[in-house]
Design brief:
- The protein is of the alpha/beta class and 457 residues long.
- It folds into 2 domains: 286 residues, Rossmann fold (3-Layer(aba) Sandwich), CATH 3.40.50.300; 128 residues, Signaling Protein - Interferon-induced Guanylate-binding Protein 1, Chain A, domain 1 (Up-down Bundle).
- It has 14 helices and 12 strands.
- The strands form 3 sheets. The chain has an 8-stranded mixed beta sheet, sandwiched between helices. The chain has a two-stranded antiparallel sheet with strand order 8-9.
- Helix 1 packs antiparallel against helix 10.
- Bound molecules: guanosine-5'-triphosphate (GTP) and magnesium ion.
- The site of magnesium ion has 5 residues, from helix 2.
């Protein structure tokens, strides 16, 4: 049962092997067992900024995603941890922890861009993590957002006359949450206290002017505002004594700054209560198998040098689900007909009536399980298959009936032929005797029930 679903520790979902992103099929398969809608929270940001630590807090655990205290980047690829959602009954929480961006040792911006893009594409809440205040360098790190338009396509063949492709993204982009770590300033502006959200809004304000510098200043802010209409900001103070090298995973909760603990708790409470289930265009709710299909489609597109395309991902999903829906409908038809149909039927109508009723049920099964069956392509395929099955049953009905009748005729009339051969009727009055016997046997034949439609052979 999905509600009993349990993943004791995170697993690597997308491996980063020498700069190539590869889906780990074993981990992806874990998703196929999750029938509930998934709330997907992904965290992205510069390496060594406490991302994995914060994701463990969201999981309500001290250990899980691997945290390390050295200067070397630690998480590689994209890791996944699924658990029953602690606040939303009948939902599964999927946490995605990603490889830190900007690792100087790796020095591969393209690879970073894909990790960023995948986190956006797969999540319903996208957490962008950085340290210190929101300043220009922190903004600049978000330049991957401006790349999104180049990296992702909403439609497989964008129409030139259509509104810009990027406008299509917004409807199925995640909510955006900015987490600022080791934030040590007062949240005040012009002598007035402000909220973290106001601080973020102020930082995203556009400047007046048309010069190159102002244009590039505004471009990123416009992108963030356009892609992520839902925004939220959380600040976190220093977690413990500033002078100690930070190794939070080895500290007890009570050794952490109370303010930091409170901030972490507020963040977790917000994310767990506000993050929505992942949806696709047209309001399609994503469950485990659908998320698995998205992961596979997007990563395959990237590794084959294509752009991950949302429309194609939805089409791939529709293809898989509708084929499965056809199979399910046919299995229902086969099972019901197997149970209810006793061949031969007395009349053809009897068979056709049963077929029609079962066909109706099968179509209902298909409708319940199908999704985005554009142009009713799959429903028509199902119709064709059911029609072929009906024709087969009709043929079989005839055959069973005629085989049965032939055998019956042999059975009933053979003794008469034997008697003819023996000359029993070759005597005076034999002809009348023969006619009487013949009628008697014919009556006997007609009295046998359920001979089927070929009774008149
Ligand atoms: N100063 C500070 N350190 C933190 C904070 N949160 C976690 N750490 C510590 O920072 C170190 C790195 O934490 P990780 O969670 O592994 O960082 P990461 O962002 O996942 O790193 P990569 O996987 O390399 O991208 C660990 O020793 C943590 O204990 C924080 O808010 N402030
Ligand atoms: Mg990490």
């Amino acid at each position: 049962m999905a509600s009993e679903f349990y993943m004791p520790a995170p697993e690597c979902l997308i491996e980063n092997i020498n700069g190539q992103l590869v889906v780990n099929p074993r981990t992806a398969q874990i998703l196929s067992a999750i029938r509930q809608p998934v709330v997907v929270v992904a965290i992205v940001g510069l390496y060594r900024t406490g991302k994995s630590y914060l994701m463990n807090k969201l999981a309500g655990k001290n250990k899980g995603f691997s945290v390390s205290s050295t200067v070397q980047s630690h998480t590689k690829g994209i890791w996944m941890w699924c658990m029953p959602h602690p606040k939303k009954p009948d939902h599964t929480l999927v946490l995605l922890d990603t490889e830190g961006l900007g690792d100087v040792e790796k020095g591969d911006n393209q690879n970073d861009s894909w990790i960023f893009a995948l986190a956006v594409l797969l999540s319903s809440t996208f957490v962008y993590n950085s340290t210190g205040i929101i300043n220009q360098p922190a903004m600049d790190q978000l330049y991957y957002v401006t790349e999104l338009t180049d990296l992702i396509r909403a439609k497989s063949s964008p129409d030139k006359h259509e509104v810009q492709d990027s406008a299509n993204f917004v409807s199925f982009f995640p909510d955006f949450v900015w987490t600022l770590r080791d934030f040590s300033l007062k949240l005040e502006a012009d002598g007035q206290p402000i909220t973290a959200d106001e601080y973020l809004e102020n930082s995203l304000k556009l400047k007046q002017g048309n010069d190159k510098k102002t244009k590039s200043f505004n471009e990123l802010r416009l992108c963030i505002r356009k892609f992520f209409p839902e925004k939220k900001c959380f600040i976190f103070g220093y977690p413990a004594n500033r002078n100690d090298p930070i190794c939070l995973e080895q500290l007890q909760e009570e050794d952490l700054n109370p303010k930091f603990r409170e901030q972490v708790a507020d963040f977790c409470c917000y994310i767990l209560s506000h993050s929505k289930a992942k949806t696709l265009s047209g309001g399609i709710t994503v469950n485990g198998p659908r998320l698995e299909s998205l992961v596979l489609t997007y990563v395959n597109a990237i590794s084959s040098g294509d752009l991950p395309c949302m429309e194609n991902a939805v089409l791939a999903l529709a293809e898989t689900e509708n084929s499965a829906a056809v199979q399910k409908a046919i299995a229902h038809y086969d099972q019901q007909m197997g149970q209810k149909l006793k061949l031969p039927t007395e009349t053809l109508q009897e068979l056709l009536d049963l077929h029609r009723a079962t066909e109706k049920e099968a179509i209902e099964v298909f409708m319940k399980n199908s999704f985005k069956d554009v142009g009713q392509v799959f429903q028509r395929k199902l119709g064709d298959k059911l029609e072929a099955k009906r024709d087969d049953f009709c043929k079989e009905n005839m055959k069973v009936s005629s085989d049965y009748c032939m055998a019956l005729i042999q059975d009933i009339f053979n003794p008469l032929y034997e008697d003819v051969k023996k000359g029993i009727f070759s005597k005076p009055g034999g002809y009348y005797l023969f006619i009487r016997k013949m009628k008697e046997l014919k009556d006997k034949y007609h009295q046998v029930p359920r001979k089927g439609i070929q009774w008149n052979v």
